[in-house]
Design brief:
203 residues; mainly beta; nine-stranded antiparallel β-sheet; 2 helices; 9% helix; 23% strand; globular
Length: 203
């Protein structure tokens, strides 16, 4: 869920400073990047552990477990964002539950990551974590910005950006129904076939 999208959520948390140019920064040799292979093409993402180390660790860990493989982009809003990462979205027959799932602990409780709100701007291509109205409820669902959305700044934990494949994001965003808050019909949903963590530069 990407809750509180149209309303500011005041958390009182001091924002983590950003000590780099988020537009100009590129991955260094040997750094880990995410390679998302989708049914519309490839998206490559670099991470920002400088501002969101726990979110980066969580995302890489889930990726290495194969958690994201076979999931779908279930919510897509033009000029805003595309959202994915829900394990429920692997199953077409439970599309009414898409957007509600996430990783769980051994006892069945939901596994969450505490907020890491920073001064990163939610510009086009930024990778950020979806959550409920609870700032500390991020799990596995993520969103990629289709267009700049400054109203999200300081309210969601941004932890990476697209360095290749924004054209793929442009294709994915078209699958959402603008009359249903971006909900994607199962037959139209783009599949994240596999997500691998690799070293930069890619071979």
């Amino acid at each position: 869920m990407l809750a509180g999208i149209l309303a500011t959520v005041l958390t009182g948390q001091e924002l983590i400073p950003v000590t780099f140019d988020q537009d100009a920064i590129t991955p260094q040799a040997g750094e880990e990047v995410a390679v998302m292979n989708t049914t519309e093409g490839k998206i490559v993402i670099m991470f920002f552990p400088q501002v969101a180390p726990n979110h980066v660790k969580n995302f890489i860990g889930l990726s290495n477990e194969g958690f994201y493989n076979g999931t779908r982009f279930h919510r897509c809003i033009a000029n805003f964002m595309v959202q994915g990462g829900d394990p429920n979205s692997r199953k077409l027959e439970v599309s009414d539950l898409w957007g509600t799932g996430g990783p769980t602990n051994a006892d069945g409780s939901r596994k969450n990551v505490n907020a890491e709100f920073s001064k990163l701007k939610h510009k086009r291509g930024i990778l950020s974590m979806a959550r409920s109205s609870n700032p500390n409820s991020a799990g596995s669902q993520f969103f990629i910005m289709h267009k700049d959305s400054p109203h999200l700044d300081g309210q969601y934990s941004a932890f990476g950006k697209v360095i290749e494949g924004l054209d793929v994001v442009d294709k994915i965003v078209k699958t959402g129904d603008p009359n249903a808050n971006g909900k994607v019909e199962p037959a139209k949903a783009i599949v994240l076939t596999d997500l691998k963590i690799q070293k930069w530069p890619l071979n």
